[in-house]
Specification:
The complex is a heterotrimer of chains A (364), B (358) and C (488). In chain A, the strands form 3 sheets. In chain A, strands 1-2-5-6 form a 4-stranded mixed beta sheet, with helices on one face. A 3-stranded mixed beta sheet of chain A has the order 7-8-9, sandwiched between helices. In chain A, strands 3-4 form a two-stranded antiparallel ribbon. In chain A, 48% of the residues lie in helices and 11% in strands. With 364 residues, chain A is an alpha/beta fold. Chain B folds into 3 domains: 54 residues, no CATH class; 184 residues, no CATH class; 47 residues, no CATH class. Classes of the chains: A alpha/beta (364), B mainly alpha (358), C alpha+beta (488). Chains A and C meet through helix 5, helix 12, helix 13 and helix 14 of A and helix 1, helix 3, helix 6, helix 9 and helix 13 of C. Chain A: This is Secreted protein.
Chain lengths: 364, 358, 488
């Protein structure tokens, strides 16, 4: 094992690395500047367990109504040899009538072992590349190396081939109403699909074909309006792909961060966990609460040290990038002399303070 | 330790129920399933105690079975399924079977029973092979000859029909459309809403099958038009599909034993039917393993060869063990597969989704 | 957000309580608004689960759908909801005011009052919009028939949703948004989306400060979310078993579902009325009645033409879309300028940005005449000493914050002072009316952000929609397809 690998294992406290999935990989792109998250993700630390051990559990849990609805919609789309899906593909992507071949990669002859499924997926996709055989691949298993660990990705998705290209298909149960869907949900779907596209491209390259045999357009299937009828749209995920590739490359450079950390640092459970986590700097922003299990711990830490970042990036920007609430307040009431680079910010803050005072006094 | 639920007044019970609910929710939010389970059991006890205290016994017990409005009729479920499959003539998923039955036969098939059907049939066959005139069994995948996920077939069908190749899901769908259209075309069955809905379900997914006129969302399908359209597309795939199925059937006859021919191979835990000769079984499976060539099958086969006593013990165990996913059972329903993420307090109350994929 | 509001947030952190960012209330608040707290079923676009609504805190109506996938129950809910909402709308007309006839000589009237809907948050607004969309096309006959009130409800909800987009409108308000317009907390905008946490900062309960109250509010078991989304553990542990029991016709099952949903709605209901009280305690801004009058105009027009109209189309045709966008931009400008005139704290934002300035008059020539033109004109000049970072070019038009009729022009800027020439609002004669021109020593404030600086838009008639925008559109007539949409 390399030094880095050893260091990462030590950080994990000997526990097995956490399995990544498309959602957690997509979340890696959320906060690239955070060293704490970067190190933990590279080491495959179970952030959820750490957060819980520190007394700041991330609240997770999904409503079973949503799960049921999602499963039911997916089942409907895929029923009867993917009848509905074929109709959509023929309609929106020009799939021809003879192209109906279906391969079920979810359960391989009763054995659900991941390696087996992955191997079989590779084999069938390789055959498709060679002979053009195969149209729909249901629940293929893909693999992506994240910081030296293989992550098995299961597109909740069917990858298929049309005119020699693979398209990732994502079936989501949020509605498209009058041609429009919630932008947040579409963005999340795009980020997640980009992970699948990336994994599929790497596989295709390994099999000796050019990466652009995998289209950057993802076929998104959603319920239409308020019904259960599926409708489809094409999502261009090139921007998300670019961000993802950049961020994954960064993960491999985690050793630079590791160099700055104490040699015996570990996130193993125990008395020293809180200090260990604090030893690696975080970059908390309120957006973390929707992407990272450590968010509440980091928020508490940010609040405790009076960080302006806890109030949000735009607030910190309004304050000229000043990191500390105490500093900003002192600059505003003139009790602190600004350094040259903060002179303008300080003037702005003093002016703001004066204006507020004037307005509030006048109104009183 | 709080007093047993029976001793509490309804008011105190209500308080206790509220406390327990909160505790269960907290446990689940923190990911502590074990604690949640224990608390849930207590919660149910308290709720039952409340019901007894407040409603009394004479208000009638809730039905254990859901009253879905289905007439039970006199037919056992397996016979109902048999009738529907005979009409369809192709391997079909429980949902389609249910819809077909509801459309053309009196009453409905109770949904819960359908899911355990294949498992029950396999057990019945193993216990007394060929004792019944027909069995409801699995479709086999052409490449691995394993049980196809989510399909039911009839044992009396020719093997070629029961094997599914890559094109079969589509051709079977088209054949089913054809058969349903023919059946609907006879008599005045076409007037019932279930029949109309069934025809529509097929027609919207077969090019050329729908009429332009649509009223009220679900259009009126002309069974003759549907049949013609289904036939037209079937012509495109039929021959290739037939060839693939035929070849797979040949392989299957050579490699599989009786049970496997009906219920599919398994590459993992080996089970021999209590009645079939143990000597014959391993041989054919060894052949099957080498022919399919997957490493796991070979490994499993060799494992079996070397530890007869272990496999005997496994046999005893596995014959009664209900299967999860794979042959003999339906695919496990995915519950928490849609991975959940941290749900932030700030987002949730603002109306952000609390369940859809993030 | 700006340095001013951010500073207020810092002050909130320092004091543990929210800080005011407005000195007056910038929205109209009805005597008896219709407070609506909706809950929707997880995983669906807009499947209503329950709603608590009413115009008095002591008298909520609770509507529940015990089995949201049952179409009949869903539409029964919609019909019940329609009754409450439509009754409220009818009751909110007040009396009919006669107005002077319009340009074409036609009779014009305006209702003296209008309905006001209050929902907890943006999600609530979105939910009402979607509910409107999903009901306004329903047919009252044939297959899938619904009660006649349902499509009417849909059209009204859609109308409220559209008015919500209009800056300065008070017909449909989201409580979190309105509160955040008037107070700054010591937490982020994301956290402010939680109504309980937001109110915890603004009005913490006895013995707690803002942070403590907000922390308590983040526990969904103690403080149910304000919706429309429910808490997943509530769904799984309480609601799902209750609904299963209902499916199985267990005794009292419906009551149990109602009780469970009420437990999730009642706390938010209380919070809403607490928010109403806090807002009512603020004095109303001077321009609020004028904006409410615009709202009343819109209400009057929609109400009176309701019978002849069709449900709103799904998408805007191009001309209407462009016109609407223009109107919204105009209204936004207007709204921001008006608020500044009403509220020195808002004017402070413009002063911070250099678009307005305040100070003391140091020199004044109130009778100065400009004799360069054909006729002499009254053009007094003043020097105003100010510490504000004025960024106005000479020649910019300004007006007085205290009296917008007093108009002027920036002549030149000097270090810490502005030379201003007054051009209007002093009367018609060559000497100013008494009291119109500020005197030396007066505190003054002049702003360049004047309301209504946009001209009336010139848009082609619908028949002349340019070909680049798809050519002339046809009137929208709802079809059977719209009525037939099934809810999943």
């Amino acid at each position: 094992m390399t030094d880095t690998a050893l260091a990462l294992e030590r950080l994990r406290g000997g526990a097995p690395p956490r399995n990544h999935d498309a959602r957690t990989i997509a979340a890696l792109t959320a906060n690239p500047g955070c060293a704490r998250r970067g190190v933990m993700d590279a080491a495959g630390v179970d952030k959820d367990a750490v957060a819980r051990a520190l007394g700041f559990p991330a609240q997770f849990g999904q409503s079973q109504f949503a799960i049921t609805r999602g499963n039911a919609f997916e089942a409907k789309v895929k029923a009867d040899g993917c009848a509905e899906l074929l109709t959509l593909l023929r309609d929106r992507l020009g799939l021809t009538v003879p192209e109906v071949s279906y391969a079920d990669l979810e359960v391989v002859g009763g054995n659900e072992g991941r390696e087996l499924r992955y191997t079989r997926t590779r084999r069938l996709l390789a055959r498709a590349l060679e002979s053009g055989e195969g149209t729909l691949f249901d629940h293929p298993l893909l693999r992506l190396d994240i910081a030296g660990q293989p992550a098995y990705l299961e597109p909740d998705v069917i990858a298929f081939q049309l005119g020699g290209r693979f398209h990732v298909i994502e079936i989501k149960s949020f509605a498209v109403i009058d041609g429009q869907a919630e932008p947040d949900q579409v963005a999340a779907a795009a980020r997640q699909s980009a992970v699948y596209v990336l994994a599929l491209r790497r596989l295709v390259t390994e099999l000796g074909a050019p990466a652009d045999r995998v289209s950057h357009e993802v076929f998104l299937v959603c319920p239409e309006n308020f019904s259960n009828r599926p409708t489809a749209s094409l999502l261009d995920v090139r921007p998300q792909l670019a961000v993802l590739e950049r961020q994954l490359a960064r993960l491999t450079r985690v050793d630079r961060i590791l160099e700055t950390l104490p040699d015996d640092l570990t996130f193993a459970p125990g008395e020293a966990l809180a200090d260990a986590v604090r030893a690696v700097e975080a970059r908390y922003a309120p957006e973390c609460m929707s992407t990272c299990e450590m968010a509440f711990f980091c928020r508490d830490e940010a609040r405790a040290c009076g960080s302006t970042g806890a109030l949000g990036r735009s607030v910190r920007d309004d304050l000229g990038g000043v990191e500390s609430i105490g500093t900003a307040l002192a600059l505003a009431d003139g009790t602190m002399e600004p350094t040259p680079d903060l002179a303008e910010t300080a003037a702005q803050l003093r002016l703001a303070a004066r204006l507020r005072r004037e307005a509030l006094d006048g109104a009183a | 330790m709080p007093p047993s639920p029976d001793a509490l007044t309804p008011d105190a019970l209500e308080e206790r129920i509220a406390e327990l609910r909160a505790a269960v929710r907290r446990a689940m939010a923190a990911g502590d399933r074990g604690l949640a389970r224990t608390l849930r059991a207590e919660l149910r006890r308290a709720e039952r105690a409340w019901d007894e205290a407040v409603l009394g016994d004479d208000d009638g017990h809730p039905d254990e079975r859901p009253r879905t409005g289905a007439e039970r009729g006199l037919l056992p479920v397996r016979e109902q399924v048999h009738q529907a499959l005979t009409l369809l003539g192709v391997p079909a998923a429980p949902k389609l079977i249910g819809s077909v039955y509801a459309a053309f036969f009196p009453g409905e098939i109770p949904g819960a029973r359908l899911t355990s059907l294949r498992r029950d049939e396999e057990r019945s066959f193993r216990a007394a092979p060929y004792a019944r005139p027909y069995y409801l069994c699995a479709g086999l995948t052409a490449d691995l000859l394993a049980a196809a996920r989510g399909l039911v077939t009839v044992s009396t069908w020719p093997l070629e029909r029961r094997i599914v190749g890559p094109l079969s899901p589509r051709t079977d769908f088209l054949t089913a459309a054809l058969r349903v259209a023919e059946h609907a075309g006879r008599g005045d069955a076409a007037s019932s809403p279930q029949v109309r809905r069934l025809l529509w379900r097929f027609a919207t997914n077969i090019p050329g099958a729908t009429d332009v006129r649509t009223t009220g969302g679900i259009g009126v399908v002309d069974p003759a038009v549907l049949a013609e359209a289904a036939r037209a597309e079937l012509d495109v795939h039929e021959e290739a599909d037939r060839d693939q199925r035929r070849q797979a059937a040949e392989r299957a006859r050579a490699q599989l034993d009786d049970v496997e021919l009906l219920f599919g191979t398994r590459l993992r835990a080996m089970r021999t039917a209590a009645g079939s000769p143990p000597a014959a079984a391993p041989r054919s499976r060894r052949a099957a393993a080498s022919r399919t060539g997957t490493a796991a099958a070979r490994k499993a086969a060799s494992g079996r060869r070397s530890s007869a006593s272990a496999s005997a013990a496994r046999r005893g165990r596995s014959a009664t063990k209900p299967s999860g996913g794979g042959p003999g059972g339906e695919a496990t329903p995915r519950t928490s597969r849609r991975t959940s993420g941290p749900v932030p307090p700030g987002r949730r109350p603002d109306g952000a989704s609390n369940g859809d994929d993030r | 957000m700006s340095a001013l509001t951010s500073l207020a947030q810092l002050q909130a952190v320092a004091t543990g309580r929210a800080q005011p960012i407005a000195t007056v209330r910038h929205c109209h608040l009805a005597e008896a608004p219709l407070v609506m707290v909706p809950l929707k079923l997880a995983g669906e676009a807009a499947a209503p689960l329950a709603m608590m609504l009413g115009t008095r805190p002591s008298d909520p109506t609770l509507l529940v759908v015990p089995q949201p996938r049952n179409r009949d129950l869903r539409f029964a809910f919609a019909a019940d909801l329609a009754k409450v909402v439509l009754d409220h709308i009818e009751a909110s007309r007040g009396s009919v005011e006669q107005l002077p006839p319009g340009r074409d000589g036609e009779e014009r009237t305006r209702y003296s009052d209008a309905p006001q809907l209050l929902v907890p948050n943006r999600g609530g607004v979105a939910f009402l919009r979607l509910l409107g969309r999903s009901t306004r096309f329903r047919r009252t006959e044939g297959p899938y028939a619904v009660d006649a009130a349902v499509p009417a409800l849909g059209r009204w909800l859609t109308w409220f949703g559209e008015r919500h987009d209009h800056p300065g409108s008070s017909l449909l308000l989201a409580m979190t948004e309105v509160l955040r317009l008037h107070w700054a907390t010591g937490q982020s905008a994301v956290e402010d989306g939680n109504l309980a946490a937001l109110l915890g900062w603004i009005d913490p309960p006895e013995g707690m400060d803002g942070p403590a109250a907000a922390a308590r509010a983040e526990d969904p078991v103690v403080c149910p979310p304000a919706g429309p989304a429910t808490d997943p553990t509530f769904d799984n542990e309480v609601l799902a078993p209750a609904m299963a029991a209902y499916q199985q016709n267990a005794p009292q099952a419906e009551e149990k579902i109602r009780a469970a949903l009420e437990s999730q709605l009642a706390p938010t209901w209380e919070l809403m009325w607490r928010g109403v009280r806090l807002l009512r305690a603020l004095p109303e801004g001077a321009s609020v009645p004028a904006r409410w009058e615009r709202d009343r105009d819109a209400f009057t027009h929609f109400h009176q033409t309701f019978g002849e109209g069709y449900p709103q189309a799904r998408r805007d045709p191009p001309v209407r879309a462009a016109r609407r966008l223009h109107e919204l931009e105009r209204a936004q400008e207007s709204y921001e300028a008006q608020r500044a005139f009403d509220d020195p704290l808002v004017m402070a934002e413009h002063r911070l940005a250099g678009e307005a300035f305040g100070g003391v008059v140091t020199e004044c020539d109130p009778t100065r005449l400009d004799e360069t033109g054909k006729r002499p004109r009254l053009r007094p000049r003043l020097w105003v000493r100010t510490e504000d970072p004025v960024r106005l070019e000479p020649g910019t038009t300004v007006c007085s914050a205290d009296r917008p009729a007093l108009k002027g022009r920036v002549v030149k800027l000097a270090e810490g002072a502005v030379l201003l020439e007054l051009t209007g609002g002093m009367g018609r004669r060559l000497t100013p009316e008494p009291g119109t021109v500020p005197q030396v020593g007066d505190r003054v404030c002049f702003t360049s952000r004047v309301a209504d600086s946009w001209g009336v838009a010139r848009f082609p008639d619908r028949e002349e929609t340019p070909w680049t925008h798809g050519g002339p559109t046809e009137d929208y007539v709802p079809t059977d397809e719209d009525a037939a949409e099934e809810w999943s």
